[in-house]
Design brief:
494 residues; 69% helix; single chain
Length: 494
């Protein structure tokens, strides 16, 4: 039951109707039960693991209030990382000495990182140690965030879970706006782009450069609209119930450098890396280890480590490692350029700003080829395929070949009908135009205010609402006719 399924809408309606009318003392237990039911419907065999991690986190948190605070923190953080590493990487040993790979629990990275952040923040005194197991478990297992984030901070969400929540008309209207936008991105944009992407990448040997370049750009957009759409649906669910969840995306493709890009892309994850990996590395005192020769790690080493870990977190295969290394090179190269030529002017000419955005997007798209290859079913594609895909960009640039491949790719992957091929591309262009119009308005007119605020401020917002709903319904019809939805989101497997 994904957040874009019709079954989920019924589930949410029932949960919200009951939750918002319960006495305060019953709201958290009910919402936790609903969250565990949601998870059990998604991956029943792994619900005990999810509950066990919640119990472990709660006990370690309570131990922070005792005399052995440092030991409790170390046990908690190391234990959570060990559990996460086992489930993410045990498949690498499949076949050795009869070892059978153990499936990874849905969303384990997201609630494990939330648990680690909670323990560190509680140890630092940035948030209170949670004394209620129900609230601690709900913080980690809330059904809107448990499968794909955003990664919440205990100091922000736990106090909200303890408050009483009732129906609020204005808040519900904002939630509906956000839900419509998120579902539009998921169903009408990302899933439709997936038709083209899923045909081109596995069969890249059969296509020329223009089609392969189009496939890479399509995947870049597919991942963005899938993950940002899912994050907005999760935030909408929170608003329905009176909870404010963190934003996860802020129009990243308008960034003019990679520092800005990562402050707008998967914000809850990049800020987690900043606070719990980069800062501890940057401020670590090495004088005792190096006998005074080195006080601090160079900033370049810290940046490289963060992005390498980011790549390895996504997967232990070479495509993800290369993806992480590319991000490190982009970020370090940017810093070296700033040192050599100085930081860019805040008010650069428009043509310079546009050129920078194009360069950032082009480099990001190159890295997305490795990301897509790493995300393919195990054993189906390797890092060699990623390099082969990129090499294919330089062959077969005849316009007639490109036109034929445009037609055949969708004809093969979608309906085997010429009219439907034309309709597919027309619909795709229309939804991309609407999606980027809204992103542009949010970035420049509303200065990256939350999506629901930007939507509410549109002069012709009702026209936009109708377009979102019409495109969304068309996307659902296309799914039932030609392809399935993306399940729990493209990031649910990380």
């Amino acid at each position: 039951m994904s957040l874009q399924s019709f079954g989920f809408f019924g589930f949410l309606l029932v949960v919200a109707a009951v939750y918002l009318h319960l006495p305060r003392r019953w709201q958290s237990p009910f919402l936790l039960a609903a969250s565990w039911i949601f998870y059990a419907m998604a991956m029943p065999s792994m619900l005990p693991v999810t509950i066990a991690i919640a119990v472990f986190t709660y006990l370690c948190g309570r131990a922070l209030a005792g005399r052995h605070k440092t030991a409790a923190l170390r046990v908690g953080v190391v234990g959570l990382l060990a559990i996460l590493a086992f489930f993410k990487y045990n498949g690498a040993f499949a076949g050795l000495a009869g070892w059978q790979a153990v499936a990874m629990p849905l969303g384990i990275s997201f609630y494990s990182f939330a648990a680690i952040a909670y323990l560190i923040d509680a140890a630092r005194g940035d948030c209170e140690v949670e004394t209620s197991f129900l609230d601690c478990a709900l913080f980690l297992n809330f059904f809107a965030t448990v499968t794909q984030g955003p990664i919440c901070r205990a100091g922000d969400l736990l106090p909200q879970l303890k408050a009483e929540h009732r129906f609020d008309a204005a808040r519900t209207v904002s939630a509906l706006r956000l839900m419509a936008l998120g579902l539009f991105k998921l169903v009408a944009v990302s899933d439709v782009l997936g038709v083209l992407v899923d045909e081109v990448f596995p069969n890249y040997h059969n296509y020329g450069g223009p089609m392969l370049l189009l496939g890479a750009v399509a995947y870049t957009f597919q991942l963005y609209f899938n993950f940002s759409g899912y994050s907005e649906v999760a935030r909408a669910v929170g608003l329905f119930l009176g909870l404010k969840l963190p934003e996860n995306f802020k129009t990243p493709f308008f960034a003019t450098n990679f520092s800005g890009f990562w402050s707008r892309w998967h914000i809850s994850f990049s800020s987690w890396l900043q606070d719990y990996l980069f800062m501890p590395l940057a401020w670590a005192d090495l004088s005792g280890v190096t006998r005074g020769r080195l006080q601090r790690l160079p900033a370049e080493v810290c940046v490289f480590t963060v992005f390498f870990v980011s790549g390895f977190w996504h997967g232990n295969t070479l495509p993800f490692v290369v993806w992480g290394l590319l991000q490190a090179c982009y970020r370090l190269g940017e810093e070296l350029l700033h040192r050599r030529f100085g930081k860019p002017k805040k008010k650069a000419p428009a043509r310079v700003v546009r050129a920078k955005r194009v360069v950032v997007f082009a480099l990001w798209t190159v890295s997305m080829v490795f990301f897509r290859v790493g995300s393919a079913p195990a054993g189906s594609m390797t890092v060699g395929d990623a390099f082969g895909y990129l090499a294919g960009w330089f062959r077969g640039w005849a316009p007639a070949r490109f036109a034929g491949e445009l037609y055949s790719a969708v004809y093969t992957a979608f309906y085997a009908n010429t009219i439907m091929v034309v309709a597919y591309y027309a619909f795709l262009l229309a939804v991309l135009a609407l999606a980027f119009y809204l992103d542009t308005r949010r970035a420049f007119t509303y200065k990256n205010k939350p999506s629901e605020v930007a939507l509410a401020g549109e002069k012709h917002r009702w026209v936009v609402y109708y377009l979102l709903v019409i495109c969304l319904l068309a996307g659902y019809i296309m799914q039932s006719g030609g392809f399935g939805n993306a399940g729990f989101g493209m990031y649910a497997g990380f």
